Description:
single chain; mainly alpha; 9 helices; 0% strand
Amino acid sequence: MEQGSLDPPRSSAGDMLHERFEHIRHLFSALTGNARVIVITESIAAIFYEWYGTYLPLYMLALGVDEMQIGLLSSVLVLTKLVSTLLGGYVADRFGRKRTLVLFDILCWGVPMFLYAIAQNPWYFFAGRLINGFVYVVLPSFECLFVEDVPVARQPAVFGALHFLSGGAKLLAPVAGLLVAWLGIVPAGRAITAICMVSAVSMAI
């Protein structure tokens, strides 16, 4: 008997790739109806939000916002997020999930991004942060619409697909770096926040 005949079979690289592909295929095969639309739109929007999140502090500094003010602005955002999270269920019941999602996405992403794009001093960022935090009102509506027509057994795959694509958007953050290197931080910051505004409004509509 040959020495290696009793060794357990080993998975080849091809088998591992096949398993990965099947796992990804399973994630995306669960996407239908609202879930498919939301995953596509959120994945596209995530690209621009990664650009915005990465370079906004540098943009603020370039426009004269100091380090302490940036910290205070972050606290304003957290405070409004806490308040809006508590209101989400009531607002969804009062106005309906789709109306809440569309209205607050436009107001709480579109308006702040417009303010950031034309910002001249810290007050623009204060107003933008104050409004932006209220986007968390949409969370109950978003999650209900996302899975309302997805069987319970397939909901983990649907959420997995959303997080997979949203996480992949981070890989495109260096594109914004090229824009900053080419234009400079202030013109690039205005361009990035303007792109986010257009993305937020168009995706909501």
